[in-house]
């Protein structure tokens, strides 16, 4: 699913109205109607009223009143509902006015609460105000601090601020947002929760906490990243008459990963048939340079995940002293002991053996459980520069990169180079604070990947994947239980496996995070009730 920024949405609106000639009032009418439909859908779910809305007309001989926009039963069900519509002065407010009208037609009692005097409305919003007046919709103007605004209401529509907002809500907007959040009433947000940064997912103070957000025409990028994703509640994107394909001159802000977008944007079908004439040599060979005496499990998790994700062969290059730990742990895994003078650690000299092993393998995954050691930078640089094949760099290998001056000090590789940092590793690698990385995950990932020519997997809730061409994908599969030791090692193995099977950097990274999350969901549904998830469970669920 396509994401857009506020600026891109304005360009799309402009193009739709001025170039395609679809009147903005038509768009606003559609916007208000779909918001009303989502309010009614929310009411149905809340009342547990699952039966469909089709009204059985009492006397079948009577011609059904097609003129009624809403089924009779809908009106019946809505009788108990009384919604407060918070109206800002821009077009978001206009949407709210249309929504109020449609809710009234569906039998919901409504009250309009203007955050500024209605006279301050302009254009389409002013026209909608005039219609509401002509209909005699009950209304009042908010005065900060007024008490008892919400009593008797069953819900709130937030039509205060949309994509035209700049910075933190000011003045009466801020106090009304705080009051609405404090009311305990369910809030349905028009387009975005007021106070959300629609581009980054950052939330201003205050920001509406919505149960449901109706993102109009296109998904606003900020709704996919925390904390914005939390403030938005359930997000639904609704068509309002704007063609659902981006105009050529609008790049878009990236895609949400799904089977559809993996297929349409990256040409990957989950149902990829295995080649009938395949044999273990045709599905790629992953080499792992990973593991150290205190951390051999990380390498095993990565290796097993790589095999489970479908590569034909996997070899674990490990310090010789670890061999007893490795033998038999994963029978399908081959091992390549590296001389380590008995201390189970890596050394700069180990690079030569890894380079030799890579002459007969397709992909190197370096980092899980690697540990830190003298000569680490020389070791990694030898691999970074000496291997003409795809590389997955994770965990301690990322920390070694960071300690050796960060990517600016490392040459741009021709082959696919996938980095899989969590926010802390990303911060160290970029010489920033974690908060600075998290402030605009989408923008940061895009800029970093383009600047350094790498495929970046910025992990965390709603992992962001960005490639050297500036393409951005957001993953929404996964489960909170995946925040467990070794989960990242599993992801590294999956991505390396798909690279070995012939996918390019962005394909392997996007498919990898998507499958990793799906496997985590499946493992959680099987085990979550009985307690915590283990990284190994994710591997089994692959
Ligand atoms: N353009 C279209 O064809 C459609 C737009 N839709 C809806 O319109 C909003 C965007 O409307 P816009 O008028 O550009 O901005 P807002 O409604 O968000 O108005 C904000 C309004 O408030 C003032 N303001 C800005 N920042 C702040 C702040 N931090 N605190 C207080 N006040 C602020 C400013 O003066 C603005 O006028 C979009 O989200 C859609 O909901 C429809 O969907 C139909 C198509
Ligand atoms: K809003």
From TrEMBL:
Catalysed reactions, as listed in the record: (6R)-NADPHX = (6S)-NADPHX; (6S)-NADHX + ADP = AMP + phosphate + NADH + H(+); (6S)-NADPHX + ADP = AMP + phosphate + NADPH + H(+); (6R)-NADHX = (6S)-NADHX
Entry EC no(s): 4.2.1.136, 5.1.99.6
YjeF N-terminal domain span: 9-248
Cofactor notes: Binds 1 potassium ion per subunit.
InterPro entries per record: Carbohydrate_kinase_pred_CS, CARKD, Nnr, Ribokinase-like, YjeF_N_dom, YjeF_N_dom_sf
Chain residues that bind (6S)-NADPHX: 91-95, 162-168, 173, 191, 298, 369, 422, 489
Binding site residues for AMP: 459-463, 488
Gene Ontology molecular function terms on file: ADP-dependent NAD(P)H-hydrate dehydratase activity; ATP binding; metal ion binding; NAD(P)HX epimerase activity
Cofactor: K(+); Mg(2+)
Binding site for K(+): 92, 158, 194
Pfam families given in the database record: Carb_kinase (PF01256), YjeF_N (PF03853)
Keywords, in A-Z order: ATP-binding, Isomerase, Lyase, Metal-binding, Multifunctional enzyme, NAD, NADP, Nucleotide-binding, Potassium
Family designation: In the C-terminal section; belongs to the NnrD/CARKD family. Belongs to the NnrE/AIBP family.
Protein name: Bifunctional NAD(P)H-hydrate repair enzyme
Gene this chain is encoded by: nnrD
